[in-house]
Amino acid sequence: MANTVHSQPRYTKRLMLRPFRRRDVSSLHDAVTASLVDLQPWLPWIEGYDRGVSQRFIRESVSAWAERRAYDFTIRAADDLDRHIGNVSIWTTSQQNAIGEVGYWIRSDESGKGYGTEATTRVIQIGFEEMGLHKVQLRIAVGNTRSERIAQRLAFTLEGTLRDEVKVGDRWLDHTVWSMLESEWAVQRERHRAEGTIA
Protein backbone atom coordinates (compact mmCIF):
# COMPACT_ATOMS: atom_id res chain seq x y z
CA MET A 1 0.00 0.00 0.00
CA ALA A 2 1.37 3.41 -1.01
CA ASN A 3 2.07 5.90 1.78
CA THR A 4 2.80 9.13 -0.05
CA VAL A 5 0.07 11.63 -0.85
CA HIS A 6 1.42 14.78 -2.46
CA SER A 7 0.38 18.14 -1.03
CA GLN A 8 -0.35 19.97 -4.28
CA PRO A 9 -3.91 21.21 -4.90
CA ARG A 10 -6.38 18.81 -6.53
CA TYR A 11 -9.13 19.92 -8.87
CA THR A 12 -12.57 18.77 -9.88
CA LYS A 13 -15.00 20.27 -12.33
CA ARG A 14 -15.82 23.18 -9.99
CA LEU A 15 -13.61 22.82 -6.95
CA MET A 16 -10.09 23.02 -5.64
CA LEU A 17 -9.00 20.80 -2.73
CA ARG A 18 -5.77 21.45 -0.86
CA PRO A 19 -4.21 20.78 2.54
CA PHE A 20 -5.01 23.23 5.31
CA ARG A 21 -2.63 26.10 6.08
CA ARG A 22 -2.37 27.92 9.37
CA ARG A 23 -3.82 31.06 7.81
CA ASP A 24 -7.06 29.17 7.00
CA VAL A 25 -8.34 29.58 10.56
CA SER A 26 -10.58 32.58 9.78
CA SER A 27 -12.23 31.06 6.72
CA LEU A 28 -12.75 27.72 8.50
CA HIS A 29 -14.18 29.47 11.56
CA ASP A 30 -16.56 31.46 9.33
CA ALA A 31 -17.83 28.27 7.65
CA VAL A 32 -18.35 26.43 10.94
CA THR A 33 -20.09 29.40 12.55
CA ALA A 34 -22.45 29.68 9.57
CA SER A 35 -23.27 25.95 9.86
CA LEU A 36 -23.54 25.32 13.60
CA VAL A 37 -27.25 24.50 13.58
CA ASP A 38 -26.86 21.89 10.84
CA LEU A 39 -23.62 20.34 12.16
CA GLN A 40 -24.55 20.16 15.85
CA PRO A 41 -26.81 17.06 15.67
CA TRP A 42 -24.10 14.93 14.02
CA LEU A 43 -20.61 16.01 15.10
CA PRO A 44 -19.35 15.80 18.70
CA TRP A 45 -16.73 18.53 18.27
CA ILE A 46 -19.41 21.16 17.63
CA GLU A 47 -20.47 21.27 21.29
CA GLY A 48 -18.78 24.27 22.87
CA TYR A 49 -17.32 25.31 19.51
CA ASP A 50 -15.19 28.45 19.36
CA ARG A 51 -12.39 29.76 17.15
CA GLY A 52 -9.86 27.83 19.20
CA VAL A 53 -11.38 24.54 17.99
CA SER A 54 -10.59 25.52 14.39
CA GLN A 55 -7.09 26.60 15.37
CA ARG A 56 -6.43 23.25 17.05
CA PHE A 57 -7.94 21.34 14.13
CA ILE A 58 -5.64 23.01 11.61
CA ARG A 59 -2.59 22.53 13.83
CA GLU A 60 -3.42 18.82 14.17
CA SER A 61 -4.23 18.54 10.46
CA VAL A 62 -0.82 19.88 9.46
CA SER A 63 0.88 17.43 11.84
CA ALA A 64 -1.23 14.48 10.70
CA TRP A 65 -0.39 15.17 7.05
CA ALA A 66 3.34 15.39 7.81
CA GLU A 67 3.14 12.11 9.75
CA ARG A 68 0.95 10.46 7.06
CA ARG A 69 -1.79 9.69 9.58
CA ALA A 70 -4.61 11.54 7.82
CA TYR A 71 -5.17 13.86 4.87
CA ASP A 72 -7.58 16.75 5.45
CA PHE A 73 -8.55 19.03 2.59
CA THR A 74 -10.19 22.42 2.57
CA ILE A 75 -12.78 22.62 -0.20
CA ARG A 76 -12.78 25.84 -2.23
CA ALA A 77 -14.76 26.88 -5.29
CA ALA A 78 -12.38 27.33 -8.22
CA ASP A 79 -13.80 30.83 -8.79
CA ASP A 80 -13.55 31.88 -5.11
CA LEU A 81 -10.44 30.41 -3.53
CA ASP A 82 -10.68 32.52 -0.37
CA ARG A 83 -13.98 31.01 0.82
CA HIS A 84 -14.03 27.74 2.73
CA ILE A 85 -16.91 25.55 1.50
CA GLY A 86 -16.26 22.57 3.74
CA ASN A 87 -13.88 19.78 4.73
CA VAL A 88 -13.17 16.38 3.24
CA SER A 89 -10.67 13.97 4.77
CA ILE A 90 -9.29 10.50 4.20
CA TRP A 91 -7.28 8.33 6.55
CA THR A 92 -6.17 4.71 6.82
CA THR A 93 -8.03 2.58 9.35
CA SER A 94 -6.17 -0.68 8.60
CA GLN A 95 -2.70 -0.75 7.06
CA GLN A 96 -2.69 -4.53 6.89
CA ASN A 97 -5.98 -4.72 5.01
CA ALA A 98 -5.58 -1.46 3.05
CA ILE A 99 -8.83 0.03 4.34
CA GLY A 100 -9.47 3.75 4.62
CA GLU A 101 -12.29 6.02 5.69
CA VAL A 102 -13.60 9.31 4.32
CA GLY A 103 -15.37 12.08 6.23
CA TYR A 104 -16.89 15.30 4.94
CA TRP A 105 -19.10 18.28 5.71
CA ILE A 106 -20.32 21.22 3.63
CA ARG A 107 -21.21 24.65 4.99
CA SER A 108 -24.96 25.22 5.26
CA ASP A 109 -25.25 28.04 2.73
CA GLU A 110 -23.51 25.91 0.06
CA SER A 111 -25.42 22.66 0.59
CA GLY A 112 -27.60 21.23 -2.15
CA LYS A 113 -25.17 22.15 -4.94
CA GLY A 114 -23.40 18.80 -5.24
CA TYR A 115 -20.13 20.04 -3.76
CA GLY A 116 -20.00 17.25 -1.18
CA THR A 117 -20.40 14.57 -3.83
CA GLU A 118 -17.81 16.20 -6.09
CA ALA A 119 -15.20 16.65 -3.35
CA THR A 120 -15.76 13.16 -1.95
CA THR A 121 -15.32 11.65 -5.42
CA ARG A 122 -11.93 13.32 -5.76
CA VAL A 123 -10.79 12.13 -2.33
CA ILE A 124 -11.93 8.58 -3.06
CA GLN A 125 -9.74 8.74 -6.16
CA ILE A 126 -6.81 9.73 -3.92
CA GLY A 127 -7.56 6.80 -1.64
CA PHE A 128 -7.52 4.20 -4.36
CA GLU A 129 -4.99 5.67 -6.77
CA GLU A 130 -2.46 7.37 -4.46
CA MET A 131 -2.85 5.58 -1.13
CA GLY A 132 -3.32 2.18 -2.73
CA LEU A 133 -6.40 1.31 -0.69
CA HIS A 134 -8.43 -1.83 -1.33
CA LYS A 135 -11.57 -0.53 0.38
CA VAL A 136 -12.93 2.89 1.32
CA GLN A 137 -15.62 3.29 3.97
CA LEU A 138 -18.02 6.01 5.05
CA ARG A 139 -19.63 6.11 8.51
CA ILE A 140 -22.80 8.17 8.60
CA ALA A 141 -25.03 8.96 11.56
CA VAL A 142 -28.49 7.46 11.16
CA GLY A 143 -30.82 10.28 10.15
CA ASN A 144 -28.15 12.36 8.41
CA THR A 145 -29.92 12.10 5.07
CA ARG A 146 -27.70 14.60 3.24
CA SER A 147 -24.62 12.49 3.90
CA GLU A 148 -26.51 9.31 3.05
CA ARG A 149 -27.46 10.76 -0.34
CA ILE A 150 -23.77 11.30 -1.12
CA ALA A 151 -23.05 7.64 -0.36
CA GLN A 152 -25.93 6.59 -2.58
CA ARG A 153 -24.96 8.89 -5.47
CA LEU A 154 -21.42 7.52 -5.37
CA ALA A 155 -22.71 3.91 -5.48
CA PHE A 156 -21.37 2.88 -2.09
CA THR A 157 -22.75 -0.36 -0.64
CA LEU A 158 -24.55 -0.22 2.69
CA GLU A 159 -22.88 -2.83 4.92
CA GLY A 160 -24.83 -2.41 8.15
CA THR A 161 -25.44 -0.33 11.26
CA LEU A 162 -23.18 0.21 14.27
CA ARG A 163 -25.24 0.77 17.40
CA ASP A 164 -24.47 3.67 19.77
CA GLU A 165 -21.28 4.36 17.85
CA VAL A 166 -20.76 8.06 18.65
CA LYS A 167 -21.92 10.25 21.52
CA VAL A 168 -22.99 13.76 20.52
CA GLY A 169 -23.94 15.86 23.50
CA ASP A 170 -26.04 13.58 25.67
CA ARG A 171 -27.24 11.36 22.79
CA TRP A 172 -25.73 8.16 21.42
CA LEU A 173 -25.97 7.91 17.63
CA ASP A 174 -26.10 4.78 15.52
CA HIS A 175 -23.91 4.92 12.40
CA THR A 176 -24.39 3.18 9.09
CA VAL A 177 -21.29 1.82 7.37
CA TRP A 178 -20.96 2.14 3.61
CA SER A 179 -18.12 0.81 1.46
CA MET A 180 -16.59 0.78 -1.99
CA LEU A 181 -14.00 -1.73 -3.21
CA GLU A 182 -11.10 -0.99 -5.52
CA SER A 183 -12.73 -3.06 -8.29
CA GLU A 184 -15.95 -1.06 -7.93
CA TRP A 185 -14.05 2.23 -8.09
CA ALA A 186 -12.56 1.17 -11.44
CA VAL A 187 -16.10 1.12 -12.85
CA GLN A 188 -17.24 4.30 -11.11
CA ARG A 189 -14.10 6.20 -12.12
CA GLU A 190 -15.03 5.89 -15.79
CA ARG A 191 -18.50 7.27 -15.07
CA HIS A 192 -17.05 10.24 -13.19
CA ARG A 193 -14.56 10.91 -15.96
CA ALA A 194 -17.34 10.79 -18.55
CA GLU A 195 -19.31 13.31 -16.47
CA GLY A 196 -16.22 15.53 -16.23
CA THR A 197 -16.12 15.47 -12.42
CA ILE A 198 -12.55 14.14 -12.30
CA ALA A 199 -9.71 13.99 -14.80
Explain this structure.
With 199 residues, this protein is of the alpha+beta class. 34% of the residues lie in helices and 31% in strands. It has six helices and eight strands. It has helices spanning 25-33, 36-39, 51-66, 115-129, 145-153, 182-195; strands spanning 10-11, 15-19, 70-77, 86-94, 99-106, 135-141, 157-168, 171-181. Helix 1 packs across helix 3 (51-66) and helix 4 packs across helix 6. The chain is globular, with a radius of gyration of 16 Å. The mean pLDDT is 95.
Structural class, by secondary structure, is alpha+beta
Task: Going across the biggest sheet, name each strand in turn.
Answer: 1-2-3-4-5-6-8-7
Quickly count the domains. Answer: 1
CATH homologous superfamily caption: Gcn5-related N-acetyltransferase (GNAT)
The overall average pLDDT, rounded, is: 95
End-to-end Cα distance, whole Å, is 23 Å
